[in-house]
Design a protein that fits this description.
Elements (H helix, E strand, L loop, with lengths): L3 H33 L3 H9 L1 H28 L1 H28 L1 H8 L5 H14 L2 H17 L4 H25 L1 H17 L2 H5 L13 H32 L6 H37 L1 H38 L6 H16 L1 H16 L3 H26 L1 H26 L6 H27 L8 H22 L4 H4 L8
Helix pairs in contact: 1-8, 1-12, 2-6, 2-12, 3-4, 3-7, 3-11, 3-12, 4-7, 5-6, 6-9, 7-9, 8-9, 11-16, 11-17, 12-13, 12-14, 12-15, 12-17, 13-14, 13-15, 13-18, 13-19, 14-17, 15-17, 16-17, 18-19
Length: 508
């Protein structure tokens, strides 16, 4: 198992790479916003990307999350047979991806009408055309997620982390080169080429593990059947997570023009701290949590709860900065070209509520991985299905009063309740003698809540004094103020995560 220094080094490298990818991601979104703004054309593109996105996330996320526990378990017995079986499994999922792509091509019209009921006839026709262009990306994304699962299981995090950089670079180039002569279709082709780049950048390392196409499924039919039985809750859970986005965008099509785009831009901005700081920690810890689960429940629980406290500790200051300076962040990131002040205002309405629920987006993903490591996949699946039902109900009700802000708030509430459900399950299933670690989590959460509230009040009081400054200066001052106060108060309150993050040692 990796040493402490290796874990810190891996998290640091993945964080740096993720930061580069996210900067490029914002470059991509800024360029798209500059060319298309929060317009009906942009709405059509984001809705058209829904169907391939739902499919590749359901297959890809299931494959990536499910591969790591299975691969590590088989690798402990026989590394060569583990590589061979993962090759068979990847080939089988590629076959499924091909069948799904063809099926969606055939039934494209009803699928588009279902995802965009508020669109006009011309918008629906264009959505169909763009969806056909982007559907083959499902094949590339499936390959990419399989490669990511294998490489992460082998503690190779660098190339998987670079996939976002590769994809964003390709989409930026495609938008700049093709948006003017080909319009929104040029952007759709960039989406496909970007998907292909995610796999191609990982392929050289994947070859080292003997991963290759194997289409002789019959000799492995029993193992495939057993694996699919394990996988299906993960796939359904991933599909349910994507349904949250589908519900959000379907409801947004019934609101004012530009609502779908505003929701998309706000969501992209939300994922800035998630992708740069929080997701790398989740990614690096996951294989180690799987290894701990193979050792024993207590070993698993200790590492899982330490990681949970670290996530909460990291999330709070980012949440405060986003709540205080959300409007400035949106202006800096997107307001140029076709993206005007009214688009900023609409996006901010969604971003404000997303920001308030930032910690729960990270905790949901982290706890889902913990349950996959325990092979409690059905529990994770049920939590996602419940969250989807809650999101549907809340989005419909709250959007009537708060517009796109209501949709974002509904997503945040469903994330909160799902996180509480998963955490509560661990609490109830843990023996009385093992619950001492939970008390530390409760104490830590209470301290961080108090610290966050104090800092938010101080920053809210000071923020008006910075509004006359250039946006960059305002953001720098508020960020330094929040993080400085946060570290100072965390030291004063003796928050254990300052030392606890150093104690996250995934070893025996």
């Amino acid at each position: 198992m990796p040493t402490l220094s290796n874990v810190i080094k891996s998290v640091g490298l993945v964080t740096i790479i993720a930061a580069i990818g996210k900067v490029l991601g914002f470059g991509r979104e800024s360029i798209i916003a500059a060319y298309f703004g929060a317009s009906s054309m942009a709405d059509v593109f984001f809705v058209a990307s829904l169907i391939p996105t739902i499919l590749f996330t359901a297959l890809g996320s299931g494959l990536q999350a499910g591969v790591i526990p299975i691969y590590l378990e088989k690798k402990a017995d026989n590394p060569k047979k583990a590589d061979e079986f993962i090759s068979v499994l990847g080939s089988f999922f590629m076959l499924i991806a091909g069948v799904l792509t063809i099926a969606c091509m055939i039934f494209i019209k009803p699928l588009v009408m279902m995802t965009a009921p508020g669109f006009s006839d011309s918008e629906l026709a264009l959505t169909e055309s763009l969806t056909r262009i982007m559907l083959p990306s499902l094949l590339f994304f499936t390959l990419s997620y399989m490669a990511t699962g294998v490489l992460n299981a082998n503690k190779r995090f660098i190339l998987p982390a670079l996939t976002s950089t590769a994809q964003n670079t390709v989409i930026i180039a495609a938008t700049v080169l093709f948006a003017a002569p080909f319009g929104i279709e040029g952007l759709a082709w960039g989406f496909v080429f970007g998907a292909a780049s995610q796999f191609l950048i990982q392929y050289p390392s994947l070859k080292k593990y003997g991963i290759r196409p194997i289409v002789s499924f019959l000799p492995h039919k029993r193992q495939i059947a057993q694996t699919l039985f394990t996988f299906y809750p993960i796939i359904i859970a991933a599909l349910a997570i994507q349904l949250n986005s589908v519900v959000d965008r379907i409801i947004a099509t019934s609101l004012e023009t530009g609502s779908v785009s505003a929701l998309n831009y706000a969501n992209r901005l939300l994922w800035l701290p998630l992708s740069i700081v929080l997701t790398p920690l989740i990614t690096v810890l996951y294989p180690s949590i799987v290894e701990r689960a193979l050792i024993g429940y207590q070993s698993f629980l200790n590492l899982t709860l330490k990681g949970l406290k670290s996530l909460l500790f990291l999330a709070i200051p980012f949440m405060v900065v986003m709540l205080i300076s959300g409007n400035s962040l949106i202006t800096l990131a997107f307001q140029r070209g076709a993206f005007d002040a009214s688009a900023t205002d609409m996006t901010y309405r969604a971003f404000l509520f997303y920001s308030a629920c930032l910690p729960f987006f990270a905790l949901r993903d982290y706890l889902m991985n913990a349950f996959y490591a325990l092979k409690k996949t059905k529990v994770a699946m049920y939590s996602c299905l419940i969250a989807v039902l809650l999101n549907v109900l809340l989005s419909w009700v709250l959007s009537r009063y708060l517009g796109v802000g209501g949709i974002a708030l509904a997503s945040g509430i469903s994330m909160l309740l799902q996180s509480l459900y998963l955490f509560g399950y661990l609490w109830l299933k843990t023996g009385r003698t093992d619950k001492a670690a939970f008390r530390d989590v409760f104490q830590e959460s209470g301290k961080l809540t108090i610290i966050g509230a104090i800092i938010y009040g101080i920053a809210l009081w000071i923020h008006p004094l910075t509004l006359s400054l250039p946006i960059i200066m305002e953001l720098v001052i508020i960020t330094l103020l929040v993080f400085g106060l946060y570290l100072g108060l965390s030291t004063l309150f003796k928050v254990s995560s300052l030392q606890g993050m150093k104690k996250v040692r995934p070893s025996k």
